[in-house]
Predict the structure of Glycosyltransferase.
Amino acid sequence: MKLISICVPMYNEGENIYAFYEQINQTLEPLYPKYNFEFLFINDGSVDDSLDRVRELRKKDERVKFIDLSRNYGKEVAMAAGFDYAKGDAVITMDADLQHPPHTIFEMIKYWEEGYQDVYGKRNERKGESWFKKKASETYYKILRKFSKIPVLSGVGDYRLLDRVCIEGIKKLRESQRYTKGLYMWVGYRKKEVFFDAEERFAGETKWKFSSLVGLAIDGITSNSTFPLRISTFLGLLISFISFIYMLVVLISTLVFGNPIPGYPTLVILILFLGGFQLLSLGILGEYLGKIFMETKDRPLYFIQSYNDEYPMNEEDHK
Ligand code: UDP
Ligand code: MG
């Protein structure tokens, strides 16, 4: 009998936990006894009753397990914790807010049995999202793909089934500045997509603020590519070349034609343009420097309060 771990990061999802459990449990019923399941909730420092509800569930159902992180680390790290503790032959990552329809799991398992090792869900159409957000995200993924040469797909999130080989691979990537979507692609293995309709959030609100999305977007590019550093080099070369030509023009027009000094607007434009460009380059350098700084600390990704209220396991066990 194969074991499948359902990994669910949760941050203040109290209102969703029971509904989530009911729905997934019912949906997966027909898969017994061919497959066994564990429901691994990762409590990412919730300040509501999320964890109490999971404890309630565990009283009735031994398959429910949980890791209680020592604080809120963010979804990317919560998922890393899930990968560390999941025991299944395959791991399915899902959101707790019922935006990922459980019945897609049948299809995922079907492809898994056919030998695919990373079966990822692709959203058909996002409900309740503005035109602007959709366009912005599409454009972003286009840029990311160009830069990173890692084909991170748009509309593909964290609803996916990963075979044990992928999990073992991802577990070795201990970077603290995580962009998990890039990691799935980086480890490779046989991939297959399945489509699903993203539902609206069952209860509560999204945890993403616009600023954190922009942050994640920058992380996505800077963790997967050093191309932005090249931009400064290329533009620097280009600007030097143009300046050289312009210098000749100015020299000749002064020496040959003896023009008086024109060019106040040119000066202002040049100063502003170059100033802005230099700041941008510094910012790009800073992004990478910051990443290096964070990674060189080499801190553990997270600490846990408990595993099923029992014992804090050692981070080292999982490396
Ligand atoms: N989440 C988490 N830690 C956080 C933020 C979110 O574990 O710091 C979880 C959240 O509980 C949910 C999933 O990540 O299960 C997706 O979050 P959300 O629904 O807010 O994101 P969206 O669906 O809007 O992208
Ligand atoms: Mg959601």
Q: What stands out?
A: Residues 226-297 form one domain. Residues 9-11, 13, 44, 72, 74-75, 78, 95-97, 99, 206-208 surround uridine-5'-diphosphate (ligand 1) (CB under 6 Å).
